[in-house]
Specification:
Blueprint: H1 3-10, E1 14-20, E2 27-33, E3 38-45, H2 49-71, E4 81-82, E5 91-92, E6 96-102, H3 116-129, H4 152-160, H5 168-174, H6 178-194, E7 203-205, E8 214-216, E9 220-222, E10 229-231, H7 234-237, H8 246-256, H9 264-286, H10 295-304
Antiparallel strand pairs: 1-2, 2-3, 3-6, 4-6, 5-6, 7-10, 8-9
Helix pairs in contact: 3-8, 4-6, 6-9, 9-10
The structure holds adenosine-5'-triphosphate and magnesium ion.
Length: 307
């Protein structure tokens, strides 16, 4: 599968292409070349709503990742993108979008606690990433935080109107939570209206830092830069704020960013926006025409949001 793409687009003759456990947004393949090199291929199905939503930003985020690979101090800390023969970061055909990376050996600690040593390394990677900002030589407008809630109308419309005619399995999961969702949407909108935009420093943020997006060997590698954003640093830090190792992260972070002060309002905004995006993306997927949707996993992901 995809041998032709690898041969004609990347000039890689393959010995083996094997599907492996991927993430939520794309299928993942381990590619072994005849040259003994190994690659990680991500294939995004264009029919999935998430691919359509990311379409433009993916082109920019992959170019920024390539820039970070070549010109930043993060070279050894992050996944490395492989160019196509005509020097592009992304290839697409009618059905899919493709992005190829160097394969990283190690473990993704999905459900495991990471050691303090690895946590420290991750904290330093985040601090280093946040040293980059608008000086990166691309037009970053498309991936600049605007504090919008692009899913607001759709999600509100779904829970107040479309819900009554949605699929039975989805209805069951959501039935007790409709008011909670409406209430959370209103809260998010209220927080958004109060955000004081003056004096916010915009830095390069990964925005999706979790244990599924790292690989650990002797060191730590940060992956999946699909959601890169030029944003307030809380767009990354919210995931750790008020969690058990927050103080550890903060003290390491302040070695690189000594003047950093927590913006509570932004922490709340990102926390709530994340929960609601995750809810909306699962609903959107479950109600879409996408094939091969793993409904059990999607419904479980949704249930998790209400625990
Ligand atoms: N370069 C790589 N080498 C080896 N394995 C990788 C590489 N990049 C990612 N992986 C593995 O594949 C998994 C999925 O990758 P990734 O997070 O990029 O996909 P995704 O579909 O965007 O994920 P999600 O949307 O769930 O965050 C990772 O959790 C990791 O285990
Ligand atoms: Mg991921």
């Amino acid at each position: 599968m995809y041998e032709d793409v690898l041969r004609y687009v990347y000039n890689i003759d393959t010995y083996k292409v094997q599907q492996i456990q991927g993430g939520w947004s794309a299928c993942a393949y381990k590619v072994q070349g005849n040259d003994k090199k190994e690659y990680f291929l991500k294939v995004y199905d264009k029919i999935r709503p998430s691919t359509q939503n990311m379409y433009t930003s993916l082109h920019i985020s992959s170019r920024v990742l390539r820039w970070l690979n070549s010109y930043s101090s993060l070279t050894n800390d992050i996944v490395e993108l492989i160019n196509t023969l005509d020097n592009q970061c992304i290839y697409e055909d009618e059905k899919n979008i493709y992005i190829l990376y160097k394969y990283i050996h190690g473990k993704t600690p999905r459900d495991e606690k990471i050691s303090n040593t690895h946590f420290n390394i991750l904290s330093n990677i985040i601090a280093k990433l946040h040293t980059y900002g608008s000086e990166i030589p691309f037009d970053l407008t498309v991936i600049t935080e605007d504090f919008n809630i692009p899913f607001y109308d759709n999600l509100l419309n779904f829970v107040t109107k479309e819900y009554s005619s949605c699929s039975k399995d989805l209805k069951e999961v959501l039935s007790e939570h409709l008011n909670t969702i409406i209430h959370q949407l209103q809260r998010l909108m209220a927080i958004q209206k109060n955000i004081v935009k003056e004096n916010i420093d915009y830095r390069l943020c990964h925005t999706d830092i979790h244990k599924g997006n790292i690989i650990i060997d002797d060191s730590v590698h940060l992956l999946d830069f699909d959601n890169l954003l030029l944003a307030p640093v809380e767009a990354d830090l919210f995931a750790f704020y008020q969690q058990p190792r927050w103080e550890r992260l903060l003290s390491l972070y302040k070695k690189t960013h000594p003047h950093y002060k927590v913006n509570e309002q932004l922490m709340k905004f990102y926390n709530l926006r994340r929960v609601l995006i995750d809810i909306w993306e699962e609903i959107e997927l479950l109600e879409s025409d996408a094939h091969n949707v793993d409904r059990i996993t999607s419904l479980n992901n949704l249930r998790q949001q209400f625990i």
